[in-house]
Amino acid sequence: MNDDSNPIDSSRQLLMMITARYGEALAWAELLHRQQRRKGKDIPYISHLISVSALVWEDGGNEDQAIAALLHDAIEDADQTRETIAERFGSVVAGIVQDCTDTSADVAAGEKEPWLLRKTRYISSLRSKPDESLLVTAADKAHNAGDMVLDARLNPGMWSKFNAGLDGSAWYLQQMHSELLQRHPQSRSVARLGEAVAEILASNSYAELVPSGTSPQQWAAQYIDRAQGNQTPGSEGS
After folding, report:
1. What is the number of structural domains in the chain?
2. Could you read off the pLDDT of 142-158 as tens digits, one per residue?
3. Is position 88 within any domain?
4. What CATH number did the domain enclosing 130 receive?
5. Do 236 and 190 touch, CB atoms closer than 8 A?
6. Are 148 and 196 in contact (CB under 8 A)?
């Protein structure tokens, strides 16, 4: 009798295994974020968390990563800590959620540092973060960027709801894509993020910001030089 089993397929089935923990994480995420809405919309925030988790599964992530995706904003936006998450779902999930958080642990609950400080520090930290965490980060940024693009197609003025506006958002997403592409070149989420960045930089709204003789890519990369000394406190939904 021939054994047609493929050890690679078997290991992948183990990787993609789902248990009751995932349902528990989904229920807790819904409870933590029940009163929150997507920025500038009347859409429950849980929709973003579910979408990010789905992208992680589709990108070959495992259950710990998919759970971390559901909880990736729990420290930043739901007053949880690495310890409270570890108590429920273990240190691996808690570590990934911490890696997805750009707010310093020294900041009081419910408060955030200036947007530019958080984003520059987070971009600089990516190279030291483990691949398992970056897969979740890529899914988060891909969903946010794709959502922005779809909203901007209907309403080009929607960028004003973000503290960094179109100029800062384009820079941040461009830099995130550049860093993530080096670590996860085959990632579906990174590809989605790249497509969104390309559409943002090619948009008429962004063209209005770019001086003659400068490419959109170059102008986006130079944002940090323009923004130095003009930091605005608050959060940005990307």
Report:
1. 1
2. 999 999 999 999 999 99
3. yes
4. 1.10.3210.10
5. no
6. yes
